[in-house]
Amino acid sequence: MMKGRCRMLTSRLLILNQKEAECKEMAAYFQDSGYSVIWCTEYDEATEILSRGKNKPDLLIFDVDLPKRREYEALEKIRSLSDMAVLMLSQDDKLDSQLYAYSKKIDDYMVKPAPLPLLEAHVEAVIRRTAEKRNPVESVGALSIDYEGRKIYLADKVLKVTAKEFDLLEYFVKHKGMILSRDKILDSVWGFDYIGGYRSVDTLVKKLRAKLTKEYPYIKTVYGVGYCFDV
């Protein structure tokens, strides 16, 4: 495996679910996927975590069977302590209930039971949208990415890329410092239903490396695993 600064890390999640067994299962799944996870079963514990002010989560998975007044009061208090994204999981599939939840400024709503891989896809999408909204232009090393205009600049010059090359480079930048398997890249950039194989990833990486030139060797190979974007 490649040596250096690349490491398995990603966004920070806070999981709040009053059912401890479900909480532990979900936490274990996301930890295995490389997320930094904090979980708790009590609302007061969640607010205490957020009040510390250090290493605040990027997203809250608020897992409640049937949210009522107490749950929304807890959500309001959490919102007063953090501007992190909120994904609500609930057994309530009624349209009015979902619309009410969105009126409380959540970012996503999923009806239980939700398969964990699908939940992870929603988590990634929410975190990505939140980051792009806060930072429409992101700079990493000599690269600058304009997410709204879908333009890439290298050393202040426009870098001509295809739509798929933009998607792949965006994915690398959003997961900089992470070791990314080819499977993970395929699912995230090409989609779960893509029938192609690893060669699609390797070919596109080769094209991106050529455009970045040897002067900016940001895309590292992690032998036997995949790639890591490191500046």
UniProtKB/TrEMBL annotation:
Q: Which InterPro entries match?
A: CheY-like_superfamily, OmpR/PhoB-type_DNA-bd, Sig_transdc_resp-reg_C-effctor, Sig_transdc_resp-reg_receiver, WalR-like, WH-like_DNA-bd_sf
The molecular function terms of the Gene Ontology recorded here are: phosphorelay response regulator activity; transcription cis-regulatory region binding
GO annotations of cellular component type: cytosol; protein-DNA complex
Classification via Pfam families: Response_reg, Trans_reg_C
Q: Does the keyword Transmembrane apply?
A: no
Q: Which residues bind DNA?
A: 135-231
Give all 4-aspartylphosphate modified positions.
D63
Q: What does this protein do?
A: May play the central regulatory role in sporulation. It may be an element of the effector pathway responsible for the activation of sporulation genes in response to nutritional stress. Spo0A may act in concert with spo0H (a sigma factor) to control the expression of some genes that are critical to the sporulation process.
Which named protein is this?
A: Stage 0 sporulation protein A homolog
